[in-house]
Amino acid sequence: MANPILGTLIHAIGGVAASTCYVPLQKVKKWSWDTYWLLQASFAWFIFPFIIGFLTVPNLMDVFAKADMSILINATLLGVIYGFGGMCFGYAIKHIGYSLTYTISIGISAILGTIVPLIMHGEMAEKYNAPGGHIVFLGMFFALIGIVICGVAGYKKEKDLKNKNVEGGEPLTFNMKKGLTLTLIAGVLSAVFGISLEVGEPISKIAEEYGAGQFQGNAKLILSTFGAFLTNLIWFTVVGVKKGTLKQLVDVKGIGVKTYTLNFGMSVLTGALWYGQFFFYGIGHTNMGEFGFASWVIHMSMLIFFSYIVGILMKEWKQVSKKTNQVLGLALVILIASFIVMAYGTMLGEGSIGGH
User: Fold this and answer.
1) When comparing pLDDT for 52 and 119, which is higher?
2) Beta-bridge mates of residue 165
3) Which of 46, 190, 256, 321 lies at a CB distance of 3.0 to 4.6 Å from 229, suitable for a disulfide?
4) Exposed e or buried b per residue across 214-234, where buried means at least 16 C-beta atoms within 10 angstroms of its C-beta
């Protein structure tokens, strides 16, 4: 039995996991960023998806065996393409911080990842005209406005910081141009991940037949994440060999047992949180019923909202002007309104369906 309100709340839990997944990076010491990224990617996109998949989907290998080969290949290849987006996302954080990277990248992903599958299936008009459909699309429009205003706040932030210095007299390293370029690429390719999940949806249906229930999405997720893992494994292995940093993964004595253990633990935590977002995405999506098409934009909007909360807690907005903070506040209010409107639309639609 579908429950869109519960689905929206579960998407919120996924949003919290996603918005905090790169925070552990702050604790990593004496490792190159490339080493950290390769290890967290191994857990986020390979180890956790396979372990949780086997634990929650009965007869997982039979599910894959029953699936059409073209679906298996296409979902994995789209995951490979997304893998480059994941890399760009990580680099963008280094230039413009958590809040803006999440907002712009995930904002693009939210819209493209929702609209493209509807166009692919020729369902745009059908979903809009369905009971509650126009309300859901209105909420999506609000989300887009909130995302744009967040971007405006970002440019205002850059202007505010230009003439300010951090403690110690060193200028702040905030590069909107470079960060924006990386973020735009990450956003488009992140939407590809949503499309990969959509392509793999028939695998979820097979998993449901085998008794996976609410965890049916864990089967298709393995394909999408495995593709992303392959891209990052090849890229960062080559980079690690060239830079001579790959040995850091096993050099315990070089940085000390305590630091190595902390670095390893923070990388695993990053991977767990990243995977957690889509673990909850799958359950939330299952609960959305006829409004499953709105799952991606709801999930991404939640992610943006909570990433700003994380950014504020990390004092990324501490040195900006009062006016910039007001613009940011307006954006967050509009994003909250979009969640409420989308949840209301799905509730109307489910009520109508239930009444038939």
Assistant:
1) 52
2) 171
3) 46
4) ebbbbbbbbbbbbbbbbbbbe
